[in-house]
# Entry
Amino acid sequence: MAHLQYFVVMIDYGRRGREAVVDPEITRREVISRVASGEYKNVSFIHEIADSSVEDITADILSEAALPDIATNEAGMEAGKLDHARDLRKHEAL
# Structure
């Protein structure tokens, strides 16, 4: 017997209703990619169906799809200081 695994992504469209996206060919990585890209928005839940069990993996997928925080580098901070100083000089009383 072959191992059966697929994902169900429930998308909530508000007053227009809900849609369950079920594609046996899609992988976990692809679900994460679609959530991160915004293709799947307003996700109500994501279930993983494997053989005869169902697991709610919504929190896992949403956290994996979250974009990492990008720290401001020193060059960007220095440029911001210079821009601010220039703006202050522009608005000084003559």
